[in-house]
User: Fold this.
Amino acid sequence: MSSDNVIHAFKPAELPAQTLTIEKPPAGKKMYCQHGGLRIDPHERSIACAECGQVLDPFDYLLTNAATINRAWQDHGYVKREISDIQDRITELKKEEKRLKAQIKRSADKITVVDVRGKGLL
Ligand SMILES: [Zn+2]
Assistant:
């Protein structure tokens, strides 16, 4: 795989515009347990932790997920800028490599071999 293919393989996908705006929650407020699994009951319209059974406030759950999505959007933007900067640097380095190789070739063409040991005279 050439370096150009590597660059294109990591080209970030475009995301739709971020539409979430989150007000800061009260300081120190713990919204719910830190277990990962959820049990969503559409009949009761409730959300509970699948592990410990703690009933979660749906709004708090949505707020937390919105904050996570917000961070992911910011991270995506940061990574996208970093990739763009790295691609620019790679392009510049390739130009510099090409220029230096040409300079080496020109210098090599100018080198005159001097027979200091006189072997060429035999
Ligand atoms: Zn839990």
Notes: The longest strand covers residues 38-41. Residues 58-110 form the longest helix (53 residues).
